[in-house]
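Thread: "does anyone have the structure for this chain?"

Original post by V.I.:
We have the sequence but no experimental structure in hand. Need at least a predicted one for the grant figures.
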Amino acid sequence: MIKVMAGEPYPLGATWDGSGVNFSLYSENARTVDLCLFDSADAKKESGTIRMEHRTDMIFHCYLPDIRPGQVYGYRVDGPWSPAEGHRFNRHKLLADPYALAIARDMVWDDAVYAFDPKDPTKMDTRDSAPFAPLCAVVDRAFTWGEDRPPRIPWKDTIIYETHVKSMTMRHPDIPERLRGTYAGFCSEPVIRYLKELGVTAVELLPVHHHVDEHVLVKRGLKNLWGYSTLGYFAPDLAYSCGRRVGDAIQEFKVMVKALHKAGLEVILDVVYNHTCEGDEKGPNLAFRGIDNAAYYRLDPKDKSKYTDFTGCGNTLDMQNPRVLQLIMDSLRYWVNEMHVDGFRFDLASALARELHAVDRLSAFFDIIHQDPVLSRVKLIAEPWDLGEGGYQVGNFPVQWTEWNGKYRDCIRRYWKGDGVAREFATRITGSSDLYESAGRRPYASVNFVTCHDGFTLRDLVSYNKKHNQANGWDNTDGSDHDHSWNCGAEGPGQDKAIEALRWKQMRNFFATLLLSQGVPMINAGDEIGRTQKGNNNAYCQDNEISWFDWKLSADQEQLLDFVQQLTRIRRESRVLRRNHFLRGRDRGASDMLWLHPDGREMAEKDWSDELDVFGAFIDGLHPQEARSKFVMGEPDETIEPLLVLISRKAGTFVIPLEPAFHWYRILDSDLHGPISVKPGTKIEISERSISVFRPDRRKGRV
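Reply from O.Q.:
Generated one for you, tokens below.
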């Protein structure tokens, strides 16, 4: 006989206090809630059921003094079955706790997890889902963090590496086989060494919240590799745990964070608080829908049996409900306080900002985060769009937020393709002041990227004119139809040697542009080694060699990797590329930025054209006179020296400027030409589609 006490409504979830476990579950419209206990994660039915008799603030709660960590559990929630009114309660369906810290068992797809009769969706299905439902577990939070401290790398010094725990490690030859694809593999010495040598400062991990593979994928023998289908907002995904015990995923995740912090690397999580894994009205009852559909989701006001969908994934969490806001905020704080992560990238963040319909930049979600003493101090990155009307909000997020700058991505691609956007290109590489400055934001508000997980890899971007997503099973209809850049001839890698050489050069141009731009650069993992997905630009369901990194590198791949490492080193050593303030330029009363005509003079307004193909940029130090005197005196200070960058889409000549009168030394060239020293007035040849970077020649100084 299990002893049952009243317990407390807070904290929500299952909380072990050293003597017993407090269980609490929010449901606004439920009539009864039963706590179901299981003997193991493999059990097909509960061994005990406790009716949660006590209810406070719409929270059902109880305390079990005899329960310990490792206990497996779930809930059955009863209430009205009335889809037309937005209620989908079904006591026959076992449900996961939204606050569960650990998932003990993945779900198994079976028709029994659906709450409605497949022959008549208005009727309730009475089959028991317990043998197939995901199960939760009580855990002990104890962990020895020791001297772990957040690296707290300033935004201006940050270089983000967007990656996936499994994809990056699954085929790595230096990682023990049993650790590949796991948190333990990701924090192994070979991976950390690679990240440090690459020069990045933060890893942005694709979702690690426990997710569910969609039924339609499972039927096709596929999996949701990316994980944008969340079931548990507190539980690290079991898929990346190498342990077998309940709660191992938590310990392994903490070990990973601790190891990355020790190496000076920050951990940013890609989080999906806009929708859940339960899909639209045809989806299963796994947690939220069965606990209180009308409370958790935004329902269609014209037909409450359906959902308002701003995400393209079937549902949208209802941010107007204070309890939903609380769930998200509690989850975020948990990952900072308990799991020690350093920030978040919010998937489809515009959906979180919607009040009634329109996106509101001052919505309750932002207000709460800005006032929170924990969350206001971590890195906050928005994907500033969703799929609803008015959802594209690049430049409109509040101070304290950075944004994936989709306009940067689009412009940089168009420029190197040859679409004639030189004016905008100049704005984008200097921090996109048109988007951020008027609101009091800094250049680092712009997270600059050319490619990301969603779309072509960089190698495929320059190799394919169209997507090749046949392996996904939708007859190549999924994925973007406009995801391509400058293609140097016939599609696909391995073509004519000259074509391939042009493609590798174009990749170097993209990387040079990205890492020389003001703002925060984000590298799509694997681009630095020319990773290909064979033209698949929507590989979310390819948990196989299409997505897994191939670490056997060709000479071209090694060369690209070396080029990117040079760029990150230049960025790290050049404070002029990592500024807290926008470059002013002479037209704004300063001389920290000069645009240079191919004849070596400063560009005038009449010289600017969208079709401009050859130009230069002089980027000055923070204290120019001090810096220049040091060059002459032979006391170089790399952190404040100016840079000269030459950019060309067509072959031509460039005259090294007479002012500022430096001897210049070439330190990087996308044509892979070696170093040269040139004096003012020298005419140099520039090849088609190239970038060169010069610093003052420290041996010769100022003329």
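V.I.: this helps a lot. The radius of gyration is 27 Å.
O.Q.: and The longest strand covers residues 32-38.
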